[in-house]
Design brief:
About 45% of the residues lie in helices and about 15% in strands. With about 230 residues, the protein is an alpha/beta fold. The protein has a single domain, classed as Rossmann fold, CATH 3.40.50. The chain has a five-stranded parallel beta sheet, sandwiched between helices. The radius of gyration is 17 Å and the shape is globular. The two termini are about 15 Å apart.
Length: about 230
């Protein structure tokens, strides 16, 4: 079953939270970013993946059943479809996102899943898995924007694909239309898209906060261990 599901916006310390819980509960198996094709590829190739700020990240991707791994890899192609095309043919998060979560949930193993794309479907996902503890992270807006800008300046400008927009464009297109994204992608566009989609994220968090299996951690600048301990 899915024991814990860590969901958040990019740069809200979801990886730190995932690593903390996985290290605390040794019998859990980790499924790290199953809807991001790039990360799925890393998990397929390496026993640990390298996170830019959190270092080596453990996962148990290769211990999943072969059919489930194939389904995850097939489903994750939605990501490249959206990154490379103005009119992607795959829906956001792929065709099989629910089937993947269902198979994990009804497995005999206990999992912690971590993802930063699935938040767009929070209102659908949370009621479907009432026995799963959802840990949702809300970091202060200024700090998250600062992290995005830091990443923007670290990446070669030639790699600033406006359809991707450091992930922000994917969310923006989901809510405003797949071909309705600002061009070119620059610092001011980043800030404008961030404010738009982060507001939508916080609104969705507020709408599902009343569910008994949801724990929201709101924090500024840094996620502390004691904050995680209070919700697990």
């Amino acid at each position: 079953m899915i024991k814990y599901f860590v969901i958040g916006f990019p740069h809200t310390a979801t990886t730190y939270c995932y690593k903390y819980i996985l290290s605390k509960f040794k019998k859990l198996k980790g499924v790290f970013e199953p809807f991001n094709a790039e990360v799925v590829g890393w998990c397929k190739s390496f026993e640990k993946v390298h996170h830019y700020s959190e270092g080596e990240v453990e996962h148990h991707y290769n211990q999943l059943k072969p059919d489930l791994r194939k389904l995850i890899e097939l489903n994750a192609t939605w990501f490249w479809d959206w990154v490379n095309n103005d009119k992607p043919t795959h829906p956001f998060l792929g065709l099989f996102w629910y089937q993947i979560l269902e198979e994990l949930h009804y497995s005999m193993d206990k999992y912690i899943v971590k993802d930063v794309c699935a938040w767009v479907y929070l209102k659908k996902i949370v009621p479907l898995f009432p026995s799963t503890r959802f840990i949702i992270l809300e970091k202060d807006r200024a700090s998250v924007l600062r992290d995005f800008l830091s990443l923007y300046y670290r990446i070669d400008k030639a790699k600033h694909n406006p359809r991707w927009g450091l992930g922000l464009s994917l969310f923006y297109r989901k809510f405003h239309g797949v071909d309705k994204y600002p061009k070119p992608f620059n610092e001011s566009v980043l800030a404008r898209m961030f404010n738009d989609v982060y507001s939508k994220y916080l609104h969705l968090c507020n709408e599902i906060a009343h569910f008994w299996n949801v724990r929201i951690i709101a924090f500024e600048k840094r996620l502390e261990d004691w904050m995680i301990e209070r919700v697990i």
